[in-house]
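SAMPLE LOG
Freezer: B-3
Tube label: C17
Construct: single chain, 239 aa
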Amino acid sequence: MATTTATAKETKTILLVDDEQTLIEALNYNLSKEGYRVICAMDGMQALDLARANNPDLIILDLMLPRLDGLEVCRTLRKEMTTPILILSAKDTEVDTVLGLELGADDYMVKPFRLRELLARVKAQLRRYEMPRTSAEPPHDRAPFGRIVVDRDSRKVFRDENEVVLTLKEYDLLDYMLTNVGKVMPRDVLLAKVWGYDYAGDSRTVDVHIRWLREKVEEDPANPQHIKTVRGIGYRLES
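STRUCTURE (predicted):
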């Protein structure tokens, strides 16, 4: 059964999905103490129903769930909404991590985890979508490169006037690179600026999101003309 806990300071809604009752209770308590409204689901089908009904600001999702596994939940939700998804799983292989990110997750944490780190990542995910534009951004609101136009006012991307649907993290990554066109962006810089925290040296999430972004904005993702790889360092956006 879904449970909801809220405090007087609540500002954001978090959907917490896990089939471990003890973990659900502990995270529900600690997230609520931080001022979040927490909605809990203990299986994949319930998670989809609650996500659609509540439009949460963040989803914390376990992979090993009854009725519908977490990867399928992630795949389905990413097709329907751009809500940031933080995967929380006991599966710790590189294949599991990359697969989760490729299906649309914005972050991936392995159990067991430190509560302080989880809370920091939650805040970082939510903060990314509240930050105002910095003065480093170009003064115009429609930033074109090639056949792609980024409309910063609406946070939408178009190719030949047809909208290209990006996840929130994909948009943030592209938008940050647009503010630094022609500059080499090391992976650790992208992690700090786009994800908002130290990612403990794991650059796979950057590579996965870059690959995903290329598939959406490049005419030939296998031979990218705009998002270039700088071997051993990171990436560069060319106009």
